[in-house]
Amino acid sequence: MKLKRLSALMMAGVLVIPTTFASATTNDSSSEENGSPKEGSYAEKSEVVYANLNANGEQKEMYVVNNFKVDQPGKMVDYGPYTNVENLTNLKVMKLNDNQVKFNASEDQFYYQGNLKGQALPWDIKVSYKLNGQSLSPEELLGKDGKLEIHIETKENEDADSSFFENYMLQISLPFDSEIYQNIKTEKGMVASSGKNKQVTFTVMPEKEESFVVKADVKDLEMESIEITGMPSSMSVDEPDSDEMTEDMKSLSDATAEINDGVGELNDGIAELNNGAKDLQEGSGEYKKGIHELDNGSSDLIEGSKGIDTALEDMSQSLQDGSDDNNSGNLADLQNGLKEIANGLKETEDGLSDLKNNYSEAFSALDQSINKIPNISPNDIQELKQSEINPEVKKKLVQSYEKTQEMKKTYADNIKAFHAVEPTLNGVKESLTEMRTNLETMVKSLENSNLNKSMKQLQQGLSELSTKYKEFHSGLVDYTDGVSELSSSYDKLHGGITDLTDGTSELENGVSELHEGTNELAESTSDLPDEMQNEIDNMMNEYDKSDFNPVSFVSSKNEKVSSVQFVIKTESIKKDDEVEENEQPEEEEKGFWDRLWDLFK
After folding, report:
1. DSSP category for residue 74
2. Three-class SS of residue 56?
3. More confident residue, 545 or 344
4. Which residues, if any, are the signal sequence (predicted)?
């Protein structure tokens, strides 16, 4: 037994001495004349932060892989609150003391890993799950079927350096096995094919807190890890060519100004139309008043005419029944009666003359007002209906146009009756003048002629006059009936004119409000091109982080940091591999020093 141990010790000595000698030789080859390592330097340093989360997003483990681009080999110092460090480049020993990492770098690229504990990520990441509307833990989800919802929330972690949240973007990727997941849907993300499987990707911009939801039908649920990468949004964003867009905005601004000018002209036209409608209403009111006076005076005119007719008939009959004895006595009465009839006709004649003048003035005012109404073609109305004017204003314009057309049609249908009134009044007046003149001539003839002869002529003349007057009276009755019917019909026409005036007045108010709105719109869009360019510039400044200078994630003492990236993964939700009964776990492969030590046991 002693011989065996002695042999082992001798073997170990043989093995260790060359190794030690070689190590010493290597150290000597890289030393200065005094035997100590020289100071080294590096051009830049990068950090890749790896973090493992559980399936709900709670942080578990974190380590950082540091990479140095060495420009002068030698001893160097890095900083970080690591729990332990590991050289990933060679077998040289690294020293960790009081958050200082000391190492000797001889290669162009040097890597080492540092493990962290309790270091906060810049983002709080929460993942929750619902199956068929019920919240379940990842363990409870395993192997289940149904409708799955995955909710992901990202927020700023106020315990971490804010520069990463303000300048970094996150990309979140969820892989889905197509044999397990179907009908994958999301609103804010992008669903893409990855071989036979699907992948949902979300992006979180710098300074943003987001929430995402993925929905899918699942069978026998298992889920791969959710992968999250954080990278600086430091790429310079090229400013888009906004000339064409600005030109479009300028066209829009000009078009808005033109619309405002058009509505202004429309407002002026509607105001003119409303003023014309008011004049028309006033003229129509005067005409209505005159036609009503004419209608109201018709009964007096008929009664007066009836009295004249009766008087003429009585006088004619009296002369036929009278004798020569009383002719001289009745002559004076007859003369007086004829004078009174002549005077009555004169008064009627004067009344008709005044009535004719009043009617002429009223009708002239009405006719001028109606003729002032502008003509609007059907094409104009069609263009109006297709225009972008406020629908309510458009409706009122069309209604006003329709009422105007209806009123003008009614007026055109009755224009003959309107025109016939004045000539009829002239004819009646002329007839009365002729009868009055004849009566006055009779009275004078009676005064200067032979009594018997005059009486016979008078009797004959009165008989003819009475007969003609009856015809005149009958025509007068027909005329007054027509005036009465015209008066009644005109009330409806005047009512339409009044409605038209009310409509145009309301329309003027509506178009005036519309003009105020388009004027405000034109003023607000006049600077639209400049405002749009300013907004583009602001957006570019918000997302262009090209001026961001990277800082170390682990220590502010670290210098020449060129980049820091984050690689974050959640635990997968998978079934454990089945272990065969009585199967011994595979023994971990032993290293050289472990195997050497076993020799001494």
Report:
1. E
2. coil
3. 344
4. 1-22
**What is the spatial distance between Cα 95 and Cα 566, in angstroms, rounded to a whole number?**
25
Tokens for 25?
């030789």
Q: How far is CA 231 from the centre of its chain?
A: 38
Average pLDDT over residues 175-184: 95
Task: Name the pairing type of β-strands 74-79 and 100-105.
Answer: antiparallel
SS3 assignment, position 526: coil
Q: Kindly compute the dihedral angle of the four CA atoms of residues 302, 304, 310, 311, in this order, to the nearest 10 degrees.
A: -160
Tell me the C-alpha distance between 58 and 553, whole Å.
19
Query: Which pairing describes strands 59-72 and 74-79: parallel, antiparallel, or unpaired?
Result: unpaired
Q: Is the domain covering 267-392+399-502 a CATH 3.30.1150 domain?
A: no
- Name 179's Cβ contacts closer than 8 Å, sequence gap at least 6: none
Distance (Å) of CA 328 to CA 22, 332, 482, 493: 183, 7, 45, 59
Q: Using CA atoms, how far apart are residues 176 and 225, in angstroms rounded to an integer?
A: 10
- Per-residue confidence (pLDDT) for residue 51, from 0 to 100: 96
What is each CA distance from 421 to 171, 201, 418, in whole angstroms? 92, 89, 6
Tokens for 504?
Answer: 């145009």
| First-to-final CA distance of the chain | 12
Query: Which of 213, 149, 216, 212 shows the shortest CA–CA distance to 180?
Result: 216
Spatial distance between the Cα atoms of 580 and 31, rounded to a whole number of angstroms? 56
Largest CA distance in the chain: 203
Residue 187 predicted with pLDDT over 50? yes
Q: Give per-residue burial for 459-474: e unless 16+ CB within 10 Å, then b.
A: bebbbebbeebeebbe
Residue 435's pLDDT band, with cuts at 50, 70 and 90, is: confident
Grade residue 145 by pLDDT with cuts at 50, 70 and 90. Answer: very high
How far is CA 173 from each of CA 189, 219, 343, 567, 576, rounded to the nearest angstrom?
A: 10, 21, 115, 12, 24
Task: Give yes or no for a contact between 486 and 421, defined as CB atoms under 8 angstroms apart.
Answer: yes
Query: What DSSP assignment string belongs to 235-246?
Result: SPPPPP--HHHH
Please give the structure tokens belonging to residue 596. Answer: 């050497």
Instruction: Centre a 10 Å sphere on the Cβ of residue 87 and count the other Cβ atoms it contains.
Output: 16
283: CB partners within 8 A, 6+ apart: 362, 365, 366, 368, 369
Amino acid letter, residue 234: S
Q: Give the contacts of 113 (CB within 8 A, at least 6 positions apart).
A: 63, 64, 65, 66, 85, 86, 88
Nearest to 214, CA basis, from 205, 206, 226, 229 = 226
Contact 284, 494 (CB under 8 A): yes
